[in-house]
Amino acid sequence: MNEGKLVEVFFDGDCPLCIREVNLLRRLDRRGRVQFTDIAAPDFVAAVTPEEHADFMARIRGRLPDGTMIEGVEVFRRLYAAVGFGALVAITRVPGISQLLDLGYRVFARNRLRLTGRCAPDGTCAVPATTRA
User: Is 91 part of any domain?
Assistant: First the structure.
């Protein structure tokens, strides 16, 4: 499978950091190789169960052309390869660097709501099933 053929990436449209990265990738995706799906949109919530929505909110996910789902750092690798950064992607596969990136992403994903300012004053960081009206 060609790394540059990621068809769909699922992102949190209510996450300020996520939106910045998606906007950058949209500008770089001159060949239209990536489909961006906002998991915070009400129509997305209606299409999945609450459990599935929670899984999508827990970590970034992507779907390859054959329907295979991928998640975490591998999604970023596929995205950046699709927009022409294959050499950078190759570096992320080097042993040691790969493990550090995986660990860093897991820490970020676990703390994403707090890090992007989306926790309540009492410290709770729950995202409702749908965040938009």
Answer: yes
Q: How far apart are CA 122 and CA 133, in angstroms?
A: 24
The radius of gyration of the chain from alpha carbons, rounded to an integer in Å, stands at 15
Tokens of residue 102, six digits: 């995986």
Q: What is the pLDDT of residues 77-101, one digit of tens each?
A: 999 999 999 999 999 999 999 999 9
Other beta carbons within 10 Å of 118: 16
22 assigned to some structural domain: yes
Where in the sequence is the domain holding 22, given as residue range(s)? 3-115
- From the CB of residue 38, how many other CB atoms can be counted at a distance below 10 Å? 17
**Pairing label, strands 35-38, 61-63:** unpaired
Residue 126 lies in a domain: no
Residue 127 amino acid letter: V
Pairing mode, if any, of strands 8-11 and 35-38?
parallel
User: 123 burial class (0-12, 13-18, 19+ CB within 10 angstroms)?
Assistant: exposed
